[in-house]
Design a protein that fits this description.
It is a single chain. This protein has 135 residues and is of the alpha+beta class. Among the domains are: 1-54, no CATH class; 55-93. It has helices at residues 40-46, 56-90, and strands at 4-9, 20-25, 120-122, 125-127. It has a two-stranded antiparallel ribbon with strand order 1-2. The longest helix is centred in the middle third of the chain and has 35 residues, at 56-90. It comes from Zonotrichia albicollis. InterPro entries: ComplexI_NDUFA12, NDUFA12. Residues 90-135 are annotated as: Disordered.
């Protein structure tokens, strides 16, 4: 599905300029490509993470493998959901409770709607009141 060609711009003898690599679209205009359209193999070649440009066969083989892995992950996830539902139904596992967090227990206003302007004191601790802008 990707029609790309890679090119190397080699430096002239005697110059110390690194090799430049670029890819040109064969079937589409360059502006039609979006991020993620280039196969990872081409990205690796452009960034000099690999020596040779990828072959069409390699790209197709890797795409096929990625699709196969996506399907396996999906299958395992669905199987796990069914197993969890069965375990909940049989009472083997408690269903997760839906807790509503209302602040951190160490906060001086835990369980209250909002911080108080009034200072608070409990035993040996003192918490000054929250500053509120005038007006």
């Amino acid at each position: 599905s990707h029609s790309l060609e890679g090119f190397r711009a080699r430096p002239v003898l005697g110059q110390i300029i690194p090799e430049r690599r670029f890819v040109e679209a064969v079937n589409r205009e360059a502006y039609q490509y979006q991020i993620g359209d280039f196969p990872a193999e081409w990205e690796a070649w452009i960034r000099k993470k690999r020596e040779d440009p990828p072959t069409v066969e390699e790209i197709l083989r890797n795409e096929s493998y990625r699709e196969e892995m996506k399907q396996k992950v999906k299958d395992v996830s669905e199987k796990d959901k069914l197993l969890q539902a069965k375990e909940y139904e049989e009472g083997l596992v408690a269903e997760p409770s839906h807790t509503q967090v209302k602040g951190h227990a160490s906060a001086p206003y835990y369980g209250k709607k909002e911080p108080s302007q009034d200072p608070t004191s409990t035993a040996n601790t003192f918490q000054p009141g929250a500053w509120m802008p005038p007006g």
